[in-house]
Amino acid sequence: MEQVSSYIEKNKERFLEELFSLIRIQSVSASTDHKEDMVKMAEALKGMLLKDGADRAEVFPTKGHPIVYGEKIIDDSLPTVLVYGHYDVQPAEPLEQWKSSPFEPEIRDGKIYARGADDDKGQLFIHLKAFEMMVSQNLLPCNIKFMIEGEEEIGSENIATFCSDYRKMLSSDVILVSDTTMISLATPSITSGLRGLSYIQVEVEGPSRDLHSGLYGGAVLNPANVLCEMIASLKDSMGHITIGGFYDDVVVPSDAERQAMALRPFNQQEYMNALDVEALSSEDGFTTLESVGIRPTLDINGIWSGYTGEGAKTIIPSKAYAKISMRLVPDQKAEKIADLAIAHLRKIAPQGVKIRAEYLHGGEAYVSPLDTPEYKAAERAYEDVLGHKPIPVRSGGSIPIISTFERILGVKSILMGFGLESDAIHSPNENFPLDNLFGGIKTALLYYRYYSEMKKG
Ligand code: BES
Ligand code: MN
Ligand code: MN
Asked: Rounded to whole angstroms, how far apart are CA atoms 141 and 127?
């Protein structure tokens, strides 16, 4: 541990400069304007992997953004850890709400502020530097592979094919992912589950053009009104989703599991304060934590129609649109849920409007077993660095590709998150505390050590 701490201490400034150089590349996967930046980013990571000690690193083009692969194989009889991360980031907008420029990282109050500082450049960087240190200090106890994609934030469309095409190259004993949160450094936790996601877009079309809302108002179905009524009816007053069949495959955790979940320290008032809200709304019969951790839900992510510019314009819009996400739990299937939702919307649509709807992307939920060497090694590593045994927490977020890895590669993932909920990922002023970054490097390094020891028996 001494050796590790002093290595980090000595190299701190260089580590930060390297991370900043990654953050400065505007790898926004959603926007075609940044297509070149995605390639630049992939090349930068390849260079870093080689410099850090990989025997091999390659950029694999896909139909979308490239995937970076790197490896160091020291001994075929040792276990192999496959690190997964993503180099793409969410768009930085709204720019005016950032205190410093999103792609020019700045350290304030011990935190790095920038888009991607946490999600996922900062967290991925933890593994790059743990790897560098293990190679340079002769501490590498296992084989390591890296698979870093550029499409996580837009649905990981091309990595499943990559996994099927390169199954052998990607073979491993465990997949290690740092792309989630922990409760705090004082109360460490490990993500033991992720929700799935089914994302759809709906269009309601009424008259073939916008109409004068006085001449026609009251006589013609307004697609915006119709869409609002339809969506409003998707949840009843108890917070239950009304789509037929929606809950059919939901696995309800046992009372014992729910009691264990409730042991996690949680302060409802602080939670509300942090969000600037005065009330919460959970599904009837479930706590706030259960509502995000073990229950599915449905939310409008965007909704638009008609005139939204300055002042007033009196029209009945011709069309109305919404983007809807449904967060899923085991054993719901993303495409089945999208089909059910779309069929339901068609069924409840009044005569006189046309409905178009499509499934955009998604994936299944993931649950991590807690009684395996893969998980126990993580538990030990966190406890050693942070002084407390980490609590397993089922997160409400999604990394849909994790369940796909299990299906295609046949390997379970360990979700060793180092982010905090206050890191504001996807929001303006995203940040990542330096303590989490450097503590993460130590924890990751111990993970490789303990896992390799435990695997040997
Ligand atoms: N890293 C997040 C997911 C996450 C964050 C899980 C914190 C648990 C705790 C990931 O980059 C993400 O944003 N995922 C998307 C899904 C994707 C298909 C757009 C999400 O959860 O909305
Ligand atoms: Mn992420
Ligand atoms: Mn994200």
From this structure: 14
